[in-house]
Write a structure and sequence with these properties.
This protein is of the alpha/beta class and about 450 residues long. The protein has two domains: about 50 residues, no CATH class; about 300 residues, Glycosidases (TIM Barrel, Alpha-Beta Barrel), CATH 3.20.20.80. The protein is about 20% helix and about 20% strand. It is built from nine helices and 21 strands. The strands form five sheets. The protein has an eight-stranded parallel barrel, surrounded by five helices. A five-stranded antiparallel β-sheet has the order 17-16-20-19-18. Strand 2 and strand 3 form a beta hairpin. Helix 3 crosses helix 4, helix 4 runs parallel beside helix 5 and helix 8 packs parallel to helix 9. The protein starts with 8 loop residues before the first strand and ends in a 5-residue tail after the last helix. InterPro entries: Chitinase_II/V-like_cat, Chitinase_insertion_sf, GH, Glyco_hydro18_cat, Glyco_hydro_18_chit_AS, Glycosyl_Hydrlase_18. This is chitinase. It catalyses: Random endo-hydrolysis of N-acetyl-beta-D-glucosaminide (1->4)-beta-linkages in chitin and chitodextrins. Its EC number is 3.2.1.14. Pfam families: Glyco_hydro_18.
Length: about 450
């Protein structure tokens, strides 16, 4: 429209069930094939419209993705790079880099390496490449995709600072340059916190602006990466994945939905993976009963998070199940000796251990957690756990707090998750992290279970 100060429009879809369209014109297709029509109607003159015709086709049923994190800073102490079984996943995520002014320092808008010596040339098994480049090539040689982890827990301030309108274009270009320099197929955008805004920045940024910057960053990355020859041509488009959150059934929006900004981000990326492990689904105190890391079912008002209800809430907000992944954590969490199983009162509990490094699977084996106590299978939540009676368990000679109830993934819970993913059309899973279950005898029991149950193939 010309001749009016209001050049905006409203959006609609002619067909019932023809998908959804956001206020900015972002269209999300329905889960059915067909021809649909998106209508833009002028605000200044509603008689003026324009129509876009959209043809929706459904791909053949896809096998679930397995997006596995390799933590570069542990390359020389956990899971040697030459031992990585690239056939056990579809996407390898190398950790990591971070936005400047985040947990790794640097100036806002910078891309700061955070993988330790894994970025250093000549240290890989071939004696030439960096461990980072070696793993990217190892993934590609197996027909798998390689993604760069950008950010992580605590990097919210860095992301907000680096994505102001003044700095975001440069930040996006630097990310694109880094991806191409190391031959990545895309990136995993680990913006995990500060969506409520930040008072630590000057000027302070509120939650509305923080969310806007996150969404605009994804859109700008799409545009910039599409310009680069590395990501042009059939099957070469850059991938963007995002680790999001499970949601509490006590905090859902009306009609059982997630907040709209969460659904908007999920619909902008190729994989929206729920960090459902550890404190992603369980807590101690504050009205919670003892609960599991990454349960499939069983959410109640006092155990308010599980995979099934979280995926359903996103789906009700317009996110296709096929775009959502669930989490498998290769580590445990435990409550103190006063709690010996799930669904017990935690208000008096003073021990709640959730350190993923200290409680990685290989350490649970080494320290005797998995050879002591009593194993149980919870047929509601579809996860196993261990109970330690008589005052709890602590490894002999250690100074660790005593454990009464340990929640962790095992072969049975991984099999249950794989079955549920396939049966319900969920997109796949993320694994945090494949460094964690590598044992001194060369076995990786949990990764082997993921490989067996999810049967990942080249994406």
């Amino acid at each position: 429209m010309t001749g009016s100060s209001d050049t905006g429009c409203s959006w609609s879809i002619q067909e019932s069930g023809g998908g959804t369209v956001a206020a900015d014109g972002t269209y999300v297709a329905p889960g059915v094939a067909g021809i649909f029509h998106v209508v833009a109607t002028s605000n200044a003159n509603p008689a003026k419209t324009a129509i876009a015709t959209v043809t929706v086709t459904l791909p053949a049923a896809a096998k679930p993705w397995v997006t596995a994190y390799y933590l570069g800073w542990f390359w020389d102490t956990m899971y040697p790079p030459e031992k990585v079984d690239a056939s056990a996943f579809t996407h390898l995520v190398f950790g990591r880099v971070a936005p400047g002014r985040g947990t790794l320092g640097g100036a806002a808008g910078d891309v700061v390496p955070g993988g330790g010596t894994a970025h250093q040339a000549g240290l890989s098994p071939d004696g030439v490449r960096s461990v980072e480049d070696y793993l990217v090539k190892r993934a590609h040689d197996a027909g798998r995709k390689a993604l760069l982890m950008v950010g992580g827990a605590g990097d919210g301030d860095g992301f907000i600072a680096s994505t102001s309108d003044a700095l975001r274009p440069g930040f996006v270009r630097k990310l694109a340059d880094y991806l191409i320099a190391h031959d990545y197929d895309g990136l995993d955008l680990d913006w995990e916190d500060r969506f409520e805004g930040s008072e630590h920045l000057t000027p302070a940024v509120d939650g509305v602006e923080a969310k806007r910057r996150a969404i605009q960053l994804i859109k700008d990355l799409r545009v910039e990466l599409a310009k680069r020859p590395r990501y042009q041509g059939a099957g070469r488009a850059a991938l963007i994945t995002f680790p999001g959150y499970t949601v509490s059934i006590n905090e859902l929006e009306p009609n059982g939905k997630v907040e709209q900004w969460q659904a908007d981000i999920a619909n902008l990326v190729d994989q929206y993976n729920l960090m459902s492990y550890g404190i992603g689904t369980t807590w101690s105190g504050n009205g919670w009963l003892s609960w599991f890391s990454s349960p499939i079912f069983g959410a109640t008002g006092k155990t308010p998070r599980d995979l099934a209800t979280s995926v359903a809430a996103y789906e009700r907000t317009g996110v296709p199940r096929s775009r959502i992944g669930i989490g498998i954590g290769f580590f445990g969490i435990y409550f103190g000796p006063g709690v010996t199983g799930p669904r017990q009162n935690t208000e008096a509990n003073r021990i709640f251990e959730v350190d993923d490094v200290a409680l990685r699977y290989s350490e649970l084996v080494r320290m005797g957690y998995l050879s002591n106590g009593t194993y149980h299978w919870d047929d509601v939540a579809k996860v196993g756990y261990r109970s330690y009676a008589n005052g709890g368990y602590t490894p002999p000679g250690s100074k660790r707090n005593r454990a009464g109830f340990l929640s962790y993934e095992d072969e049975a819970s991984i099999a249950a998750k794989a079955t549920w993913v396939r049966d319900t059309g969920v997109g796949g899973t993320i694994v945090w992290a494949i460094n964690y279950d590598y044992l001194p005898d060369g076995r990786s029991p949990l990764l082997s279970a993921v490989k067996q149950e999810f049967k990942p193939s080249a994406p």
